[in-house]
């Protein structure tokens, strides 16, 4: 029954116009960035290397598809959570508003399975968005700008990664980025279990992300104890794959925290939905 | 009278010292001018604070008097004051004053220190110190100080192409100023916001190993103007 | 032979915050019943029905369907129930066919696309299967709701206000459908409705609830004593007619409404005799109408 309802959820997601809004917006945003980089990418590069160029020269093709892909990922990873929440925040509460949750809940499928099937479908949509971003960011950029070494500006300096050493980093980076976005998806589904309309969970999800991001960026000792456990602190952990050496222990810690968030949020959604009196 | 004689002796000595420096430099320039053009394979290793880069390879093209191009598959880092500025600087004798200094042993080689001071203020180089192997007319070490880029100290090693004065290895030691990291699109927003600066007087080292020289093959100017 | 009990509700109670929606409701529905579930607005009908379908968890009491409890056999119970609660809601962005496929997939039965198409034709939507729900009228959605209810061939059908918003033709169609389901397929039907006339015509048993409590339960005929009708008579002289009837039928209950109208409780089979009596005594009779007895009974119970 779980598989059947998951299939149902796919059909619903694929049939909703808002699902394509996210994909369209992403495509447009990536297209605009690629166009901007094509028109004036050099100025962005000089912004990154200017401090070093007083004593050094950088030879080689810095403005290449790998750098563009990295920049796209860096820019959009802040905005994609909204596109994810737009669809996943609607999965339970949207049906409550529409009244179909009432029809669904009278069927011989457990409420736990209803939530799990929505979670799985939401995860698949998130995965698709991530892959779509990856395809555009990496594949299209590399087609237009070619490949080459990747220059990355981290908080502790510049890292230059060789072309042959990059694809696996992007691959694993996208995997972790997916996990970050999955956390957003799960959060919005959990909030959706509490609401009777879809705007509430979407706005609440973004508000929580913004709040946690602000807390994470404040250099205030009173927040130091909670920062490591905020999921937003680990949403940029995909970047760690572009350090040299790659801090695998730190990445694994981020993965564990994100996985725990997902498990807890799904549990909350299941608990709430099971206890809920469906009066709509 | 005594004073006049003392001053005369000092002037003659200074003239001798200056003449000696010019003679040494002439020999070096003559040797360098035997190379019209060359192509060389460079292997670069950089050990620079706040920059992590793996060893990389490049092909370097040079043509008299100041055409220079680095072609690499990946990104390579070179010091701003690199290979050929000193050549063109030394070629114009009238643009500087050269003074011979002490003799210093570098490795197993006795070298003479030649201090070169540019005449005008328009030059980017404000001071150059060259330790020259006078027997072979080879620069063994240089310290070039520029207006905007600090000092670069370069150690030279020679092997197969010593007759042309072309080094087999260059070790650049550069002044690394406080690199300020901008909060840019490539910055990591989730890490600490405190900026890290290099300690004063910290050095960066770039080692360039040069092999497989192809000298005076008649390189076309188009190589230096062709865009990728 | 005692009929199998399909629904057994005992001392059901449910509170929302400080508001007690259901205080003490008990009733039972037997196999093959068309069971009327009646009560005024706010009596607790919807809450009780939602409890029957596990949409709401009751605070007290017990519910058994097919002899089973939701705690242990939720899936088995719900796979044998088809229901419409208030208005049927569907996915507006999907077609009628897709909507039925979605619900069929989780109904616990294997329903083929062919069966879905047949069901659409059964409810009169055979040519609208590919159309999106956004363009459907209320009546069409109601019919689609019926289709969704019957798709997996359940033994128990629960209908909450199925004729709300329908035109007279629609109401007749629903009534005939319910009768067909009972007579041809021996379905058990629990029907909540404000259309008392419909209940009177098709239900064999009923319960009336008010202010969260069940008041009366039993067979419709026993409760209403439908052997007797309330007959409204329109004549020239109601007083004279009343005196005539009182003399002829001393035990009958009579009420003069106006100079030209009176109401009399009368045995159904004797109504023709009544007509002959009036005519033979030169009373000018303009109308003889049996009024809806259930309505009176309902109002009497509610106001008691």
* Average pLDDT, all residues of chain C: 86
What summary fits the major beta sheet of chain B?
10 strands, antiparallel
Order of helices and strands of chain B: HEEEEEHEEEEEEEH
What is the end-to-end distance of chain C?
Answer: 35 Å
Name of the top-level CATH class of the largest domain in chain C = Alpha Beta
Largest sheet of chain C: 6 strands, mixed
Quickly give the CATH architecture of the largest domain in chain C: 3-Layer(aba) Sandwich
Q: What is the count of β-strands of chain B?
A: 12
Distance between the termini of chain B: 71 Å
Count of DSSP helices of chain B? 3
Give the number of DSSP strands of chain C. Answer: 13
Content of β-strand of chain C: 25-35%
Structural class by secondary-structure content of chain B? alpha+beta
Report on the architecture of this protein.
The complex is a heterotrimer of chains A (280), B (228) and C (304). The relative contact order of chain A is 0.14. The mean pLDDT of chain A is 90. In chain A, helix 1 (2-15) packs across helix 7. Chain A is mainly alpha-helical and 280 residues long. Chain A contains ten helices and three strands. Chain A is elongated and about 70 Å long. In chain A, strand 2 and strand 3 (157-161) form a beta hairpin. Chain A has one domain. The longest helix of chain A has 35 residues, at 111-145. Chain B starts with a helix and ends with a helix. The longest helix of chain B has 31 residues, at 2-32. A ten-stranded antiparallel sheet of chain B has the order 4-3-1-12-11-10-9-8-7-6, covered by helices on one side. Chain B has a single domain, classed as outer membrane lipoprotein receptor (LolB), chain A. The radius of gyration of chain B is 21 Å and the shape is globular. Chain B has 228 residues and is α+β, with helices and mostly antiparallel strands. Chain C is 37% helix and 29% strand. In chain C, the strands form three sheets. Chain C has a six-stranded mixed sheet with strand order 5-6-7-3-8-9, sandwiched between helices. In chain C, strands 11-12-10-13 form a four-stranded antiparallel sheet, with helices on one face. A three-stranded antiparallel sheet of chain C has the order 2-1-4, covered by helices on one side. The radius of gyration of chain C is 23 Å and the shape is globular. The mean pLDDT of chain C is 86. Chains in contact: A-B, A-C. The A-B interface holds A 44, 47-48, 50-62, 70-71, 74-75, 148-149, 151-163, 165, 216-217, 219, 233, 235-236, 239, 244 and B 48-54, 56, 58, 70, 72-80, 82, 148-150, 152, 174-177, 179-182, 184-194, 196, 204, 228. Strand 3 (157-161) of chain A pairs parallel with strand 2 (51-53) of chain B, so a sheet runs across the interface.
């Amino acid at each position: 029954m779980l598989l059947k309802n998951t299939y149902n959820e796919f059909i619903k997601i694929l049939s909703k116009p808002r699902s394509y809004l996210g994909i369209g917006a992403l495509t447009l945003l990536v297209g605009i960035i690629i166009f901007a980089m094509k028109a004036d990418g050099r100025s962005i590069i000089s912004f990154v290397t200017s401090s070093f160029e007083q004593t050094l020269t950088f030879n080689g093709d810095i403005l290449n598809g790998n750098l563009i892909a990295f920049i796209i990922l860096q820019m959009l990873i802040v905005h994609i959570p909204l596109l994810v929440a737009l669809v996943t925040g609607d999965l339970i509460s949207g049906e409550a508003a529409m009244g179909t949750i009432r029809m669904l809940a009278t069927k011989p499928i457990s409420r736990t399975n209803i939530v799990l099937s929505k979670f799985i479908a939401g995860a698949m949509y998130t995965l698709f968005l991530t892959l779509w971003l990856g395809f555009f960011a990496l594949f299209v950029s590399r087609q237009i700008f070619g490949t080459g070494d990747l220059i990355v500006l981290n908080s502790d300096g510049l890292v230059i990664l060789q072309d042959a050493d990059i694809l696996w980093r992007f691959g694993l980076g996208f995997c972790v980025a997916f996990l970050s976005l999955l956390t957003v998806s799960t959060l919005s589904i959990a909030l959706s279990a509490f609401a009777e309309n879809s705007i509430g969970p979407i706005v609440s999800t973004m508000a929580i992300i913004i709040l946690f991001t602000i807390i994470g960026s404040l250099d205030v000792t009173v927040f130091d104890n909670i920062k490591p456990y905020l999921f937003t602190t680990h949403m940029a952990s995909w970047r760690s794959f572009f350090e040299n050496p790659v801090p695998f222990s730190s990445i694994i810690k981020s993965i564990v925290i994100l996985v725990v968030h997902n498990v807890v949020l799904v549990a909350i959604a299941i608990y709430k939905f099971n206890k809920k009196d469906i009066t709509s | 009278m005594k004073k006049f004689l003392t001053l005369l002796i000092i002037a003659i000595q200074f003239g001798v010292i200056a003449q000696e420096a010019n003679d040494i430099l002439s020999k070096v320039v003559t040797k360098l001018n035997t190379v019209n053009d060359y192509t060389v394979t460079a292997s670069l290793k950089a050990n620079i604070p706040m920059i992590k880069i793996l060893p990389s390879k490049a092909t370097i093209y040079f043509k008299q008097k100041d055409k220079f191009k680095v072609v690499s598959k990946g990104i390579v880092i070179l010091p701003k004051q690199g290979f050929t500025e000193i050549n063109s600087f030394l070629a114009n004798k009238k643009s500087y004053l050269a003074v011979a200094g002490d003799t210093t042993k570098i490795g197993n080689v006795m070298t003479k220190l030649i201090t070169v001071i540019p005449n005008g203020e328009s030059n980017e180089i404000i001071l150059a110190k060259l330790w020259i192997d006078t027997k072979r007319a080879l620069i063994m070490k240089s310290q070039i100080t520029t207006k905007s880029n600090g000092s670069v100290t370069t150690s030279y090693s020679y092997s197969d192409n010593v007759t042309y004065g072309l080094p087999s290895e260059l070790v650049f030691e550069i002044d690394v100023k406080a690199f300020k990291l901008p909060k840019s699109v490539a910055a990591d927003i989730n890490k600490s916001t405190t900026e890290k600066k290099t300690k004063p007087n910290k050095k960066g080292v770039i080692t360039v190993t040069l092999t497989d020289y192809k000298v005076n093959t008649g390189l076309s100017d188009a190589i230096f103007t062709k865009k990728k | 032979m005692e009929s199998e009990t399909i629904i057994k509700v005992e001392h059901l109670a449910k509170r929302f915050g400080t508001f007690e929606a259901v205080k003490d409701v008990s009733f039972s529905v037997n196999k093959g019943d068309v069971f009327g579930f009646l009560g005024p607005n706010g009596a607790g009908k919807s809450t009780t029905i939602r409890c029957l379908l596990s949409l709401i968890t009751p605070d007290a009491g017990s519910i058994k369907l097919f002899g089973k409890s939701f705690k242990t056999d939720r899936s088995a119970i719900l796979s044998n129930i088809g229901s419409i609660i208030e208005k049927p809601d569907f996915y507006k962005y999907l077609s009628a066919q897709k909507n039925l496929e979605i619900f069929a997939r989780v109904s616990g039965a294997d329903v083929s696309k062919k069966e879905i198409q047949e069901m659409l034709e059964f409810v009169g939507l055979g040519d609208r299967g590919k159309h999106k729900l956004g363009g459907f009228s209320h009546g069409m959605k109601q019919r689609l709701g019926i289709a969704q209810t019957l798709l997996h061939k359940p033994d128990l059908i629960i209908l909450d206000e199925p004729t709300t918003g329908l035109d007279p033709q629609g109401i007749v169609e629903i009534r005939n459908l319910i009768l067909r389901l009972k007579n041809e397929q021996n379905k058990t039907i629990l029907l909540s409705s404000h259309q008392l006339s419909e209940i009177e015509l098709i239900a064999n048993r009923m319960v009336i609830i008010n202010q969260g409590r069940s008041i009366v339960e039993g067979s419709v005929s026993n409760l209403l004593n439908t052997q007797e009708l309330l007959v409204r008579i329109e004549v020239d002289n109601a007083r004279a007619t009343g005196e005539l009837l009182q003399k002829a039928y001393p035990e009958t209950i009579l009420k003069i409404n106006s100079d030209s109208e009176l109401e009399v409780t009368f045995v159904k089979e004797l109504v023709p005799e009544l007509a002959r009596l009036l005519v033979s005594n030169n009373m000018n009779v303009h109308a003889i109408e049996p009024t809806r007895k259930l309505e009176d009974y309902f109002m009497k119970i509610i106001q008691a």
